[in-house]
């Protein structure tokens, strides 16, 4: 114990890397700093190499000479680097190196520049992995192909954590005006009649000719497919309000996108119009308060706001307005074949940009128990844990013989927020055993996964002439 305390004191006294960083940030040579504080250049060099301790007197002299805060100068970035480096070293890519926590801590505290270099390289590596996954992982001429409009629109939403306060504020004002004028914030039909001189009519699918909503300026009406349920009708009417009355606000948000193709911008515009429709049906402040009060009970919120399970799940990904934050959630929707048709991220979940998701996730088992809510803890290869809520949803139908599409949706949040959800009440969160999942097979280095569909980028596949592993692929240590 005494030796451990001595080691802590030694670390506090020797501040070479921090002194060198400070000197370089101020653009000083060792000779100039030595002259400023009244010591020899060789003494500065010895302190920077941790061959001389940083005394309290020297610390005060530095603070007074360069007008620095003593606390910030003495502060240890080693803890920050140690935490970040430890997270990186938990990647399965490094499991065979057998690095101890003390090794990571020693590097982080004694050589913070090396720690930062490793973190930068790992970040660049991850970016490269994602870029390769986007283009098939072979580094071929596909890298030079035309931009993917779907991926570009998704990146636009993800970079803003699917939160657009200006759209929320505008929608909230419109909803308040509707409530004052017509007694209910969702009385969209009266709003159209008063504000736009438009009526609302409903027709069977054969008359709608494949449309669920159509604005008919000539007849002065909005026509809807009569087989839509109430939540879908409200959404379509709210969507038409977004296109008629919120166009400028949506255009301003799109102006920040820098899209490379017309298709990308159109897809992003559709996403923002849908966002605005959700904001009209579920005004931000009222929705955040209700969500907190009901502990994010999706079905209870669905009844309160007259919205579907999926609409509520969408809205829960948008609650990140500064000062009025709700729980941070991500959302993903897949079909029975595993195709991802929608993903929204307000929680920092590292979605694969292309392809499906991990087959070990209960998202893909939801089709066995339609409409039943499944909850699950999942853990990514880097050790980060999330709590997820999964259920199937139905699109279409509404009449006998009408085509239906069953999909599964998942809503999730980081483990540190899970205690806020009704789904974890009475659960011992610390004892939860998560399902180990990956982002996508190409990006997952869990080498013993029996569900793997393809090898991860950067790993050499072993021949199976003499030995076949339980997992679909064996990998070289190199």
From TrEMBL:
PANTHER family: HTH-TYPE TRANSCRIPTIONAL REGULATOR, HTH-TYPE TRANSCRIPTIONAL REGULATOR SUTR. It comes from Hyphococcus aureus. Keywords: DNA-binding, Transcription, Transcription regulation. SMART domains: HTH_XRE (SM00530). Transmembrane segments: none annotated. Gene3D superfamilies: lambda repressor-like DNA-binding domains (1.10.260.40). Belongs to the short-chain fatty acyl-CoA assimilation regulator (ScfR) family. It comes from the Bacteria. Residues 19-73 form the HTH cro/C1-type domain. Pfam families: HTH_3 (PF01381), Peptidase_M78 (PF06114), ScfRs (PF09856). PROSITE patterns: HTH_CROC1 (PS50943). This is Short-chain fatty acyl-CoA regulator family protein. InterPro entries: Cro/C1-type_HTH, HTH_RamB, IrrE_HExxH, Lambda_DNA-bd_dom_sf, ScfR_C, TransReg_Diox_bact_type.
């Amino acid at each position: 114990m005494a030796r451990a305390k001595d080691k802590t004191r030694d670390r506090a006294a020797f501040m070479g890397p921090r002194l060198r960083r400070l000197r370089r940030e101020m653009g000083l040579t060792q000779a100039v700093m030595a002259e400023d504080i009244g010591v020899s250049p060789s003494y500065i060099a010895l302190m920077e190499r941790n061959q001389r301790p940083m005394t309290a007197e020297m610390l005060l002299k530095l603070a007074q000479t360069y007008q620095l805060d003593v606390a910030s100068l003495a502060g240890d970035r080693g803890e920050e680097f140690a935490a970040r480096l430890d997270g990186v070293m938990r990647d399965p890519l490094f499991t065979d190196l057998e690095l101890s926590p003390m090794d990571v801590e020693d590097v982080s505290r004694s050589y913070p520049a090396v720690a930062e270099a490793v973190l930068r390289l790992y970040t660049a590596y991850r970016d490269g992995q994602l870029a390769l996954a986007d283009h098939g992982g072979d580094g071929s001429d596909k890298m030079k192909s035309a931009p993917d409009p779907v991926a570009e629109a998704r990146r636009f939403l993800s970079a803003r954590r699917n939160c657009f306060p200006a759209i929320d504020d505008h929608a909230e004002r419109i909803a308040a005006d509707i409530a004052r004028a017509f007694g209910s914030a969702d009385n969209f039909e009266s709003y159209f009649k008063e504000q736009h001189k438009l009526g609302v009519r409903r027709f069977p699918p054969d008359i709608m000719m494949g449309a669920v909503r159509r604005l008919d300026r000539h007849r002065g009406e909005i026509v809807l497919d009569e087989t839509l349920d109430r939540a879908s009708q409200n959404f379509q009417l709210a969507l038409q309000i977004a296109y008629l009355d919120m166009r400028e606000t949506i255009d301003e948000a799109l102006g920040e996108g820098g899209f490379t193709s017309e298709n990308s911008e159109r897809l992003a515009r559709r996403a923002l119009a849908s966002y605005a429709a959700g904001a009209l049906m579920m005004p931000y402040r009222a929705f955040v308060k209700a969500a907190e009060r009901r502990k994010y009970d999706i079905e209870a919120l669905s009844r309160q706001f007259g919205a579907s399970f999926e609409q509520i799940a969408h809205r829960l990904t948008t609650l990140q307005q500064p000062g009025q934050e709700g729980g941070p959630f991500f959302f993903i929707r897949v079909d029975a074949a595993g195709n991802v048709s929608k993903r929204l991220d307000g929680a920092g979940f590292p979605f694969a940009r292309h392809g499906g998701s991990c087959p070990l996730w209960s998202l893909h088992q939801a089709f066995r128990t339609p409409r039943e809510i499944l909850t699950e803890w999942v853990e990514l290869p880097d050790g980060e844990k999330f709590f997820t809520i999964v259920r199937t949803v139905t699109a279409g139908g509404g009449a006998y013989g009408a085509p239906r599409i069953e999909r599964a949706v998942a809503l999730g949040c980081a483990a540190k927020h899970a205690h806020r959800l009704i789904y974890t009440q009475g659960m011992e969160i610390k004892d939860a055993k998560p399902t180990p999942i990956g982002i996508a097979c190409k990006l997952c280095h869990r080498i013993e996964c029996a569900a793997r569909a393809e090898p991860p980028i950067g790993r050499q596949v072993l021949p199976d002439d003499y030995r076949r592993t339980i997992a679909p692929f064996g990998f070289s240590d190199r």
